[in-house]
Amino acid sequence: MRFAINHISAPKLGLAEFFAMTRRLGATEVEIRNDLPDVMGSMDPAEVRAEAERQGVTILSINALYPFNVWSGDLPDRAVAMADYAQACGARAVVMCPLNDGTEVAFDDLVAALKAMKPILQERGLTGLVEPLGFPVSSLRRKATAIEAIKAADGEGAYKLMHDTFHHHLAGETEFFPEWTGLVHISGVTDQHVAVEDMLDAHRVLVDGDDRLENLPQIKALLEAGYDGPFSFEPFAAEVHDAADPEAALKDSIGHIQAAA
């Protein structure tokens, strides 16, 4: 297995220390963000590229363009800005998340957004990682729908799926698409009292023996089906963000997954 680390796993670390921690954990692949922490909004992309090269890490993605499937307002300008930044800092992909506020988005609008984003990505040598969100209020919950839209947009060369173990579980999905999967996000939920339909990002912790999301079966299914890319930690819970030693916590989670996978 290849592990990657999303900066959300240790958001209080500066970029250089985040990269260094990743290397100490035995990984060489990272994801940076435009929110927590906002690397894109706070650092020159040339600095990010130079630091990544100095420490020998590959930037898999910037996370995330939202809501990518509503191609209106300032979204086209934000998409170009994020793609420009990704190219300049050496990132390989842009994560793309759908509208998640209970508003429905027509399939044709989803396809139109993918068509509009495609040349922006292709001109910069980037991949769009389309991430269905499994929340009940999400406008794009299932990977099969995302694949159908990508095909309708003639976007097979521009897009891959983001398989997120949390969202896969929330959406009640059972099908895996390893040939479409460009990256996998992993996180667990250990709260025994929250119903699946009520799970939120705030419940997402590192994967351990109390996980309710079936991360290990999902990981095994992807590997057995031929997925050979990295598994990137993406926990959002405050208890993870506030951990006194995020490196030790990540090391424990990596060890648990390696022992059981």
TrEMBL record:
Kinase recorded as keyword: no
Organism name: Paracoccus gahaiensis
Name the record gives this protein: Xylose isomerase
InterPro entries for this protein: IolE/XylAMocC-like, UCP036778_sugar_epimerase, Xyl_isomerase-like_sf, Xyl_isomerase-like_TIM-brl
Top-rank lineage group of the source organism: Bacteria
Alphabetical keyword list: Isomerase
UniProt xrefs under Pfam families: AP_endonuc_2
Domain Xylose isomerase-like TIM barrel residues, every copy: 21-258
GO molecular function terms listed in the Swiss-Prot or TrEMBL record: isomerase activity
